[in-house]
Design brief:
The protein contains 3 helices and no strands. By secondary structure, the chain is an all-alpha fold. The radius of gyration is 26 Å and the shape is rod-shaped.
Length: 87
């Protein structure tokens, strides 16, 4: 199918040089680049996995005091439980 595109001059020049260096045509180079872009875009639009946040036990709401060291220790313990090894 034929179409008209307005491509910046410097980009078109680079594309033509690249096509020659690859031993292909500008049409094939642009088609392959468009295919890669659309494939990547469709992968990116897939619903991302939900994040699972750690849950920390607390005796009273608002009373939980966590430090970075304590969080790291709890995460390592959880990793060990889930995967059979510590981080």
């Amino acid at each position: 199918m034929r179409t008209t595109l307005d491509i910046p001059e410097n980009l078109l020049k680079r594309a033509k040089i690249e096509a020659v260096q690859r031993g292909t045509t500008l049409r094939e180079l642009v088609g392959a680049a468009l295919e890669r872009e659309l494939t990547a875009a469709s992968r990116a639009s897939v619903t991302p996995r939900r994040a699972r946040f750690p849950i920390f036990a607390s005796n009273a709401p608002g009373a939980l005091r966590l430090t970075n060291a304590r969080i790291a220790k709890l995460e390592a313990e959880e990793d060990a439980r889930r995967h059979g090894r510590a981080r």
